[in-house]
Automatic annotation (TrEMBL), chain A:
Cited PANTHER family: ABC TRANSPORTER PERMEASE PROTEIN, INNER MEMBRANE ABC TRANSPORTER PERMEASE PROTEIN YDCU-RELATED-RELATED
Species lineage: Bacteria, Pseudomonadati, Pseudomonadota, Alphaproteobacteria, Rhodobacterales
Protein name in UniProt: Spermidine/putrescine transport system permease protein
PROSITE patterns listed in its UniProt record: ABC_TM1 (PS50928)
Native species: Shimia sagamensis
Domain ABC transmembrane type-1: 204-412
Family annotation (InterPro entries): MetI-like, MetI-like_sf
Automatic annotation (TrEMBL), chain B:
A Pfam short name: TOBE_2
Quaternary structure and partners: The complex is composed of two ATP-binding proteins (PotA), two transmembrane proteins (PotB and PotC) and a solute-binding protein (PotD).
Enzyme class (EC, first level): translocase
Record PANTHER family: SPERMIDINE/PUTRESCINE IMPORT ATP-BINDING PROTEIN POTA, SPERMIDINE_PUTRESCINE IMPORT ATP-BINDING PROTEIN POTA
Organism, scientific name: Shimia sagamensis
Protein name: Spermidine/putrescine import ATP-binding protein PotA
Length: 424, 367
């Protein structure tokens, strides 16, 4: 026992300062240097990755536009009960006109119309048309407004219009999320969308199903290749490795377009099949613009992501394991199935997670070869981001997608164990 | 050595050759037969062909030419899993994804044994290597020595008649290695199994084996019990490879009554025992003398010993022995070992002494 350990109280360094403090001082320089080294990347990631994602996630629930544009109206709507079936009273109409005149000055009313149009068709044109006429009204002198507004557009005399505004006047809404799972926010609470508008759940299911199919095909096609890579002599293995990596050096668009050339009805495969006589000229196979085309093209594109982790795990499996199994009386198949395969599972796991997560968010390939039946949820998100400009819904869809991936990752951890995932 | 016709031969190599590239032979004309219950060690430097021989016997390599027989039948065309040979690998090759009990159960399961039989055999095998309490552990949770025992138990659990071991103690530290050498030998003898053991460690070979086959250049240089091998090496390779050895080079002058007179390169004449067939008058030869057979204390030099002058170069105190490096007949690397006893003089470098050895301990081998 040394003096330092037998003493009670904090251990002291040679100069009498507590050892912990002394150690911290000694390490501070190292820590600062390490922090300085990662600082540029950290800042870059924060600015270009973490912050936009957080902002986007917030967009899926953020709904301040109604309250900000119509503050007085929203306050008045609290006194009105939509279920009564009666129109609101004059006070509400007066508040609405006062809000609108301010909003029109600031040119904010059309944006509000667009926002409400996501929930109820016709709102956009209602706000735009009425805006022009409300502009001429003087909120102080021209009252009462109830009749005048109903004259401008008879939708202002419709209970539904006011119900929609009231329903979506909350600052933080679950409306986008309900829309994302084919439901809607109504005065009566969350309800299912009409039958003909329900597409998103189906699209989620399809995305999951197709990603799974792609992952499975990648496992089936990649496993033998990875095995060869790990077991061939180095020279041959290197050539094979170049072939595996070749797709990485070719543009994604080129490869996807190549599949278009291969798979279309006047494409290479169909022409050959017709020429051989296997397929009649008028019954050419439909292999593109559907799920089949997407699965084929994406399997090809994602295959290296499956092969490489498998390969690096298989490389670590010593050949003596198989020899040992055989010396104990196992046939080639038993030795493979009972010994080699279980040892290669971590590679399959790593490859599968990689391919599945890449596939579930894939956008370009399904967009080009997917047609209408083979597109993913990501294509829908892209549509809402760039065409319909319903960013709230896009953010909600994205958040759900992120949630699903994390959930699957968690399940995988519970079942297989993330410790069993190895990249080599 | 080549008594391939003997009836009690259990394992037999008959004129076996092996080539990997079709140009050079890794194993050249190997003839070897061992009776049931023998512990045979294949000893040799790396690249001498010993591991290839073991792999051919196990069935992982095929012989390019010749016949390998097990119990009288040729096994050239029998795949490894049907040979029923137990094997212990250098890195143990315990399956990391299975527990110890599952590892041991594997050879029994592929033989379609029932659960109760399996459990009984596993228990017996684990008790045999004193690892009975470890059945539920994984290989990674065991120390090197424990893994070694399990690998041994796994090779023995299906009761093979022949067990092959490929440098199984290579990864252990010295103390553990010595303990395991003793345990493996005991186990093999108690169970009466035939063992072929490959190593490049000559101490291991000498302490464990009934017979040792010294490999070099794809051939067996000598196949003998350890004591014969050490005391009567048949050629200079074996003399050099087994134990420590001093060599003096010279030319054979004449051979009389089983004694060769050799003129060393510095003109000194010494009496030797001619051993190698190439030792004939006029031929160059290498004379081999074991360090512990050389004496320098006048009282201890026996009658009839050949004496020679020497200069002390270095004297190392090693506890149980003294190790002295001398300059003898132009060779500065001549080493002698003397047991530490009260009456033994401790030498100092530069000292001139007289050394002596019996002609029988001085063996004339091939040049």
């Amino acid at each position: 026992m040394t003096d330092a350990t037998s003493q009670s109280g904090p251990v002291l360094a040679a100069d009498g300062t507590p050892l912990k403090k002394s150690l911290a001082r000694a390490l501070r320089l190292q820590k600062t240097r390490a922090l300085m080294l990662i600082a540029p990347l950290l800042v870059f990631v924060m600015v270009s990755f973490i912050f936009p994602i957080a902002k986007m996630l917030f967009k899926s629930v953020e709904n301040e536009i109604v309250v900000e544009t119509l503050p007085l109206t929203v306050a008045e709507l609290q006194n009105w009960n939509a279920e009564s079936g009666a129109l609101p009273d004059e006070a509400l109409y007066a508040a609405f006109v006062a809000d609108m005149v301010v909003a029109i000055d600031a040119k904010r009313h059309t944006r509000l119309g667009t926002r409400l149009n996501y929930e109820h068709t016709g709102m956009s044109s209602l706000f735009r048309k009425s805006g022009r006429k409300i502009k001429k009204l003087d909120p102080a002198a021209d009252g009462p407004f109830k009749e005048k507004l109903i004259d401008i557009d008879k939708k202002w005399g419709d209970v539904t219009t006011w119900a929609v505004i009231k329903t979506h006047s909350v600052k933080i809404t679950n409306g986008y999320f309900l829309n994302a799972i084919d439901m809607q926010r109504t005065p009566e609470g969350a309800q299912a969308q009409p039958e003909d508008k329900r597409i998103l759940i189906k699209l989620f299911q399809r995305t999951l199903f197709m990603s799974l199919m792609i992952t499975v095909s990648c496992i089936l096609l990649g496993y033998p290749v990875a095995w060869l890579l790990a077991n061939l002599p180095a020279r041959t293995a290197n050539i094979l490795m170049i072939l595996v990596l070749l797709p990485f050096w070719t543009s994604l668009l080129v490869r996807t377009s190549a599949w278009k050339v291969m798979l279309q009805q006047q494409g290479v495969i169909n022409e050959v099949l017709v020429w051989i006589g296997l397929v009649a000229d008028d019954a050419r196979l439909v292999m593109i613009n559907n799920q089949f085309g997407t699965i084929v093209a994406m399997t090809h594109i994602l295959l290296p992501f499956m092969i490489l982790p498998m390969y690096s795990v298989m490389q670590t499996i010593q050949p003596t394991y198989l020899r040992a199994a055989k010396s104990m009386g196992a046939t080639n198949w038993t030795a493979f199935w009972r010994v080699y395969f279980p040892l290669s599972v971590p590679g399959i796991g790593a490859g599968s997670i990689l391919v599945f997560i890449l596939a579930i968010g894939y956008y370009i390939t399904p967009e080009i070869v997917g047609g209408t039946k083979g597109v993913f949820i990501s294509n829908r998100i892209a549509y809402h981001i760039s065409s319909s400009l319903n960013w709230g819904l896009a953010a909600a869809l994205g958040t759900i997608l992120l949630g699903v991936v994390l959930l699957l990752y968690w399940c995988y951890d519970k079942i297989v164990g993330i410790d069993n995932v190895k990249l080599g | 050595m080549a008594d391939s016709a003997s009836n009690d031969a259990f394992v037999e190599f008959d004129r076996v050759q092996k080539s990997y590239d079709g140009e050079t032979l890794v194993v050249k004309d190997l003839n070897l037969s061992l009776p049931r219950g023998e512990f045979l060690t294949m000893l040799g430097p790396s690249g001498s062909g010993k591991t290839t021989c073991l792999m051919m016997l196990a069935g992982f390599e095929t012989a390019t030419h010749g016949d390998i027989r097990l119990g009288g039948t040729s096994i050239n065309n029998i795949p490894p899993h049907k040979r029923g040979i137990g094997m212990v690998f250098q890195n143990y090759a315990l399956f990391p994804h299975m527990t110890i009990a599952e590892n041991l159960s594997f050879p029994l399961e592929v033989r379609k044994m029932g659960k109760s039989v399996r459990e009984e055999k596993i228990k017996r095998a684990l008790d045999m290597v004193e690892m009975g309490a470890f059945g539920g552990r994984r290989p990674a949770q065991l120390s090197g020595g424990q893994q070694q025992r399990i690998a041994l138990a796994r090779a023995l659990v299906f009761e093979p008649e022949l067990v092959l071991m490929d440098e199984p103690l290579g990864a252990l530290d010295k103390q553990l290695r010595e303990k395991m050498q003793f345990e493996i030998t005991n186990l093999a003898h108690n169970l009466g199994i035939t063992t072929v053991y490959v190593t490049h460690d000559q101490t291991e070979a000498l302490t464990m084996s009934d017979r040792v086959a010294v490999f070099d250049d794809g051939r067996i240089q000598q196949l003998d019990p350890p004591d014969t091998l050490y005391e009567n090496p048949q050629n200079s390779f074996v003399a050099q490879f087994i134990g420590e050895n001093n060599t003096l080079e010279g030319v054979v002058k004449e051979i009389n009554n089983g004694i060769a007179i050799v003129e060393l390169d510095d003109g000194e004449l010494i009496d030797c025992k001619p051993v190698h067939e190439s030792v004939k008058p006029g031929a160059r030869t290498r004379v081999s003398i074991r360090p512990e057979r050389v004496e320098y204390n006048k009282d201890r030099i026996q009658e009839g010993a050949h004496t020679l002058k020497a200069e002390v170069k270095e004297f190392i105190y090693m506890g149980d022995i003294f190790r002295t490096r001398l300059s003898v007949a132009g060779n500065d690397e001549f080493v002698i070992k003397t047991r530490n006893a009260p009456d033994v003089e401790r030498l100092t470098p530069g000292q001139q002494i007289e050394i002596g050895w019996l002609p029988d301990d001085c063996r004339a081998l091939d040049a």
